[in-house]
Specification:
- There is one protein chain.
- About 40% of the residues lie in helices and about 15% in strands.
- It is an alpha/beta fold and about 375 residues long.
- The strands form 3 sheets. The protein has a 7-stranded mixed beta sheet, with helices on both faces.
- Helix 2 (about 40-60) runs parallel beside helix 8 (about 240-275), helix 3 runs parallel beside helix 4 (about 100-105) and helix 8 crosses helix 12.
- The protein is globular, with a radius of gyration of 22 Å.
């Protein structure tokens, strides 16, 4: 049986149409976009087109798109770049942020900033009451992800942004896991900055973007020749940027059809998982349509993942684990999930090519593995 991939929140396969758009810039159109000759002008026009394609996907003007090497760089560019402009005060980030937001935020503590972690409910939503409480203290930066990478829970970023703006704080959202799965509208979210990544939407790795409200100023992370309007110096990765643009255009064209179809498949798998005794995380909240996060009591998540891999199914751990020091998911702990259950967490994330037959085969595999692991546990007692 062919390997079935259910880990699209980690990365997505490169769309063939994206590859076709990139290939000329990996072969004959190899010019530097800063050069004034024909090859350079062709590269510059390709970047300009990609900027327009990405801008259209999130409802902004092309000059607001700053291309980066990925989501991690974009998050660091905003947090560190804003901190260099603003006077040290408080930075508020949710307790369930990706490390590429939480770690640069924590690093600001060495520069006189106070770091405030915003609490979440048991359903995985950032607690708006805690946002209000946090903003009673002078705050310069607020960063809350649009969709959580583990649970898929969609945050009320617009409501948080309204509160942040009222407190005169700069509001940022990491929209990497939401892009291409739900409508993402920069203006509607009312944020000052937003992070995107190409490889989550069937584009190439090595391309991301920070969308910036032009009324704010950031200090660049990388100084040099002044590329990307001075925001990100360095010779542009033309093939990857072109691929990002192509992927953005494809995402815009398929989201209306894709979201309900994928959500129906997700419902199919979750019904099956619940029948098998699984606990679902974040299911009471609005989520991106492709993501399910679950655990079976008494079964280690890493073990389940390894056994499913042997049967030809790729899913992900809900926690960074090692055999020497297993650590439960920080997201689930923030949601109040008991550590012994959190250690069993497994993330299942669908993509455009997955089918109902694959879902049904996956459920059969889970049933087989869970029964065997429970028998082994019972024998060991």
């Amino acid at each position: 049986m062919a390997f079935v991939y259910f880990d699209h929140n980690a990365t997505t396969p490169l769309d063939e149409r994206v590859l076709e758009a990139m290939l000329p810039f990996l072969r004959e159109q190899y010019g530097n976009a800063s050069s004034r000759h024909d090859l350079g002008i062709t590269a510059r026009r390709a970047i300009d087109q990609a900027r327009e394609q990405v801008a259209a996907l999130v409802n902004v003007r092309p000059p607001q798109v700053v291309f980066t090497s990925g989501g991690t760089e974009a998050n660091n560019l905003f947090i560190k770049g804003a901190a260099e402009i603003l006077k040290p005060s408080q930075i508020a980030v949710s307790a369930i942020e990706h490390p590429c937001v939480s770690k640069p935020a924590e690093a600001l503590a060495r520069k006189g900033w106070a770091v405030r972690k915003l609490s979440v409910t048991r359903d995985g939503k950032v607690d708006l009451n805690d946002v209000d409480a946090a903003l009673q203290t002078k705050t310069g930066i607020v960063s809350v992800m649009l969709a959580n990478n583990e649970t898929g829970v969609v945050q009320d970023v617009a409501a948080i942004a309204q509160r942040a703006r009222a407190a005169k704080a700069w509001m940022h959202t990491d929209a990497v896991q939401a892009l291409g799965k739900i409508a993402v509208d920069f203006e509607a979210l009312n944020v000052h900055a937003m992070t995107l990544s190409a490889h989550k939407i069937y584009g190439p790795k090595g391309a991301g973007a920070l969308i910036v409200d032009k009324r704010i100023e950031l200090t660049p992370l990388i100084a040099g020749g002044g590329h990307e309007h001075g925001m990100r110096s360095g010779t542009e990765n033309v093939p990857a940027i072109v691929g990002f643009g192509a992927a953005a255009e494809l995402a815009a064209g398929r989201i209306a059809e894709l979201a309900p179809r994928i959500e129906k498949l997700r419902g199919r798998v979750e019904q099956g998982l619940v029948r098998l005794g699984a606990v679902l995380f974040g299911a009471a909240s609005a989520r991106v349509p492709n993501t399910s996060y679950f655990a079976f009591k008494g079964i280690d998540g890493e073990t389940l993942i390894i056994e499913l891999d042997k049967l030809g199914f790729g899913v992900a751990a809900g926690a960074a684990c090692s055999s020497a020091n297993p650590e439960p998911s920080a997201t689930l702990l923030a949601m109040g999930v008991a550590p012994e259950i959190a250690r069993g967490a497994v993330r299942f994330s669908l993509g455009v090519a997955n089918t109902a037959n694959e879902v049904d085969d996956f459920l059969q595999a889970v049933k087989q593995v869970v029964a065997r692991l429970k028998n082994l546990t019972a024998m060991a007692v």
